């Protein structure tokens, strides 16, 4: 009986040491996320290290090629929106709607990539990201109302499209 208790005690002692080791590892991970040590980009990178999708999105979001592509889309968007006029032929309107949908979709994918890669907190810290998010969500509402509810674009929805012109200010901040 005494030998069995001793063996149980030794087995429990090993289990406790293992649990303590696991706890120390968790404690170290928790320390890495402590607010005083937490900088936005470090948090994103630590988060991205754990998941392949987040890592891929972070790499894309921080890529200069991705940012140049988005800047080119902003310029194309500005040109397309500046070509809108009244009266406009049916064919031209179809081309404008086509580009509007493509560019709104690209900007929505940009939003998703940045939020997944950077994390929502990091993404939301920058003013232009908040501004972009609002513009993209308004464009999504515009598309939902136009195509989901089959409502013809009203003056209010067209005004929402005009807000997309303000994205040029995001582009302007990258100029030297």
Structure, described:
- This protein has 9 helices and no strands.
- It is mainly alpha-helical and 176 residues long.
- It has a domain of 121 residues: Voltage-gated potassium channels. Chain C (Four Helix Bundle (Hemerythrin (Met), subunit A), Up-down Bundle).
- The longest helix is centred in the N-terminal third of the chain and has 31 residues.
- The radius of gyration is 26 Å and the shape is elongated.
- 15% of the residues are buried.
Structural class: mainly alpha
Q: Kindly state the percentage of residues in helix.
A: over 70%
Percent strand equals under 5%
CATH homologous superfamily title of the domain at 52-172 = Voltage-gated potassium channels. Chain C
Rounded mean pLDDT is: 76
If helices are DSSP runs of H or I spanning 4 or more residues, what is the number of helices?
Answer: 9
**Spatial separation of the terminal alpha carbons:** 82 Å
CATH class of the domain at 52-172, please? Mainly Alpha
Radius of gyration: 26 Å
Task: Return the CATH architecture of the domain at 52-172.
Answer: Up-down Bundle
Shape: elongated
Beta-strand segment tally: 0
CATH topology of the domain at 52-172: Four Helix Bundle (Hemerythrin (Met), subunit A)
Biggest sheet: strands, sense, closure? none
Instruction: List the helices and strands in order.
Output: HHHHHHHHH
Can you tell me the residue ranges where pLDDT is under 50 for at least 5 consecutive residues?
32-39
